[in-house]
Amino acid sequence: MNANGHWNEELQAALDLLAQGRPEDCTAKLRTLLRSCDNAPLCRAMALEGLARALFAQRQAAEAVAALEESLALLGVAAGPSSPLTLGVMQNLAHLRLEMGDFEGSAALGQEAVKACESAFGAQSPRVASALLHLSAAYYRNKDWNTAEQCLLRARSIWEECARISGVPDQQMGTCLNNLGRLYEECGQLDRGIALHRKAVALRQDVLGDHEDTAFSLGNLGVALASAGQWDEGARTLEAAVACYECVGKGTSREAESYRKNLDLCRRALQEQSAPPAAESAAHGQDEREGLLAEIIERELVMFLATPNEGGTASCQQQPDSFRIMRRMVHEPLSRASLVSYLEDLRRAESEGRNFMIEKYARMDDRLPPLGDSPLLDVIADAETVFMREASARYPHVIVSDGSGAFKNYLRCELETLSPATLELYAQDLDRARREGRNPAMERYACLARLLGKGSLENFEKSAAHAAASR
């Protein structure tokens, strides 16, 4: 049967099982097909490609890579190195290597795919643009923003020229605009990111109408608007995104749920802006704030206790109450909006298997490359350093001056774990404090004084000065 070309029916039947969420059944069917097509290279190559997808769905990444590598070698001979099938498998392999954390291997395959497309179809081919879009993902994931931007801008230019000639935009242009928008958000250029998300929404609404991709672009725009503090338009845009997901039958998808959470954040921020400053509202707000802080600190504590330490459990990990006090102090000056956004960061990290404490300490020891390069990282760290210097000058016995830069390094490594939205809100908090004549560092140590039973910061300083004189 396979020799007569009917193997593609068996292949499609197996892939249908994968589409139905049955990767184990798909794997079994494809292994049966592979045993019967040893002498048909194209059959074997395509079956291996499908098997790789099924294996990856079962979290068998190493086996999936091996299957794709064999498929790629077979297709290079059976279909040619620049055939769409070969290039497709090459890009799938690059994506899989990226998911496994092999940035260099993924980028090398992506570069090979771009060169093959250029050689076979010309430098201005839409196939080259597609290969550049895939390649940009490796640089984006490795936070090489400049190279990722170059790939995306070149791909965008190719698709724009093709659309000018044909009058029909390529659907991948929407993905390109989305990714560029996200890239600029990561770099702290929110206005540029928002402008690109608007273009992606307009393109997809025009070409696709109500579609999952349209909903995704609306969601990206809504999140970017919220990050810029444009809560009203952000809420309306996120409402449209969720409605679009529901319209296409994807209302319970992970993406739709994520945008619902961002919509709730926008609505709470709008309520906070319009809430009357009554005593009852203030009391309710304080209770809510304490609830936010409690959940944040407990989630941080779980991460802290799970952080490995050379030589076994660290002594500080055996004192959770001290950890709670120090983290409560750290978060004291932050606004409710910042706390809500950071709590979402923690929840998202937990779902993704990330541990902010491990990442922070690994960065401090230079065991990880930078986790972000937003200009806000230095803006916040510099502002907090100035606040600390001023606070230390006034309360030198409690707030000891740091001449080594350790405080700034610690803070910056912690800031790198935060989302662009939380960084933006944090920076707004510091700017507001400066305009109001407040010092967040003093607010933190005043909180510490209360938690330690010292009363006021002034009393804490007098007690520390007396202890120092006694020694």
From TrEMBL:
User: Keywords for this entry?
Assistant: Repeat, TPR repeat
Q: Name one Pfam family in it.
A: TPR_10
**Name of the protein this chain belongs to:** Tetratricopeptide (TPR) repeat protein
SUPFAM superfamilies named in the record? TPR-like (SSF48452)
